[in-house]
Amino acid sequence: MKTYEVEELFAEEKSIKKQGFLKVRNTEIKLPFTCIAGKEGGKTILITAGVHGAEYVGIETSKNLAKIIDLNKVAGKIIIIHTVNCSGFRERLAAITEEDRQNLNRIFPGNESGNTSEKLAHFILNQLSKKVDFYIDMHGADLHGTIKPLLFYPIAVEREVAEISRKAAEASGFEYLVASHAKNGSYSSAALEGTPGILTELGGMGIWSKEEVDCYTEKILNILDHLKVYRIDNKSNAKITFFDPVNEIIAKEEGYWYPSFKTGDKVGKEEKIGEIRDVFDNLLGEYFSPTDGIILYQTVALAIKEEGFLAAISSIQSR
């Protein structure tokens, strides 16, 4: 399969579908991609999957999108990067890259002169997401977590960027829409640079199913339809719940994690959400919710490191 330079993805072409590997400058990385340019002009949309290499539902959905999107129905261009963290995918790593053992979605905007992971983040931002009209970054709950299907949209950005992103979120078919003031992730860094976008979450625990992929595909197609890049006949509607930015609960001890609730459960302010014990079952720490809300995602692994992520709780917005 041919290897491409990034400029070739943005060439003025119509009615063409390219697939191959994209060179990441100053690294040995080659990203698998599909680029679909329609016969009519329109927006350019970037879709990425596998920023975390073990979030398999999003990765498989990216493949499915490339397979089912009809070139003749595209107005504009759709660029799909099927796996951003190729080394993490290959080595079956949770969250981090194999090269530098870093969480790629915590080091944006990256560094052109940094290590391999930082160069990759810099490339995604500066050579891809800053050059498109809208950015969709597909995620899930990784190897050791569960999550309610949800979508993050940026709020700590210029008003127009936030508005375009929120309207796309509302059209997605996701029921849970979560405001985010993140600044160091893939889509949030792009939004700070002026590219509207969203981060979607579906799946987890290192597994995937056709049903999940079909559901995820439907939601991404809803967004493409809203952006008038790819029209679909059957749009899915959802009863939307808006959430405030999440409160992430971080472990203060290393040990064995015992959550008290399931993902999606309601919790009250100061209600106990779990505890950490040592190997001899001695209590090391208890953890409590800082707000009334819902557990949107959490770690379900027994093992937990000090400063490891435990749970994310968010309160429902009053609108």
UniProtKB/TrEMBL annotation:
One Gene Ontology molecular-function label: hydrolase activity, acting on ester bonds
The UniProt entry, under Gene3D superfamilies, shows: Zn peptidases
Domain named Succinylglutamate desuccinylase/Aspartoacylase catalytic: residues: 42-227
Q: Which InterPro entries match?
A: AstE_AspA_cat, N-alpha-Ac-DABA-like, N-alpha-Ac-DABA_deacetylase
Q: Name one Pfam family in it.
A: AstE_AspA_cat
Q: Which domain of life is it from?
A: Bacteria
Database matches in SUPFAM superfamilies = Zn-dependent exopeptidases (SSF53187)
Q: Per the entry, which co-factors are needed? A: Zn(2+)
Alphabetical keyword list:
Hydrolase, Metal-binding, Zinc
The protein depicted here goes by the name Succinylglutamate desuccinylase/aspartoacylase
